[in-house]
Amino acid sequence: MFVNHGTNLAKAIAAWGGDLPDWVRLLASACDTANQRSVAERLGKSPGYVSRLINQSYAGSYSEAETLVRAAFGGEGVVCPAFGDTIPLASCLRSRRRRDLPTTAIRRLYARLCPTCPNNTDGQEA
To answer: Per residue in 69-122, pLDDT tens?
Structure first.
């Protein structure tokens, strides 16, 4: 397999070696398709954050980073107890992290159920 050593994917492979997680591969590939700045904006983070993840030099929570990457680029879903159906991980993340007042019946349902939902991993890391 030919790897262009100037790519983000090549940097990730060099940094992570054989332990390259699929979500980092997804992140690096997204950066190679677009650029780190646009990927960072989609994650709500800085380009430096993205770079540190790719280069395995980030000092914070990799599980939080994984969640953000999977939500933004993975197209993954989770079973939502509020709806009894699968919803996009991005919707789950956005709904449970809303801080404004729940003004609709659906948002009130989220506000009531999200804090105890098994999909909600927010605040579980110390």
So the answer is: 999 999 889 999 888 889 899 888 888 888 888 888 888 888 888 888 888 888
CA-to-CA distance for 27 and 36, rounded, in angstroms? 9
Q: Do the beta carbons of residue 9 and residue 3 sit within 8 Å?
A: yes
How far apart, in whole angstroms, are the C-alpha atoms of residue 30 and residue 18? 20
The pTM for the full model equals 0.78
Give me Rg for the CA atoms of the chain: 16
Q: Which amino acid is at 74?
A: G
Residue 124 half-sphere exposure toward CB, CA atoms < 13 A: 10
Give the C-alpha separation, 78 to 73, whole Å.
15
Which of 42, 67, 52, 62 has its CA nearest to residue 8? Answer: 52
Which 3 state secondary structure label does DSSP give 79? strand
Tokens 């953000």, located at residue? 68
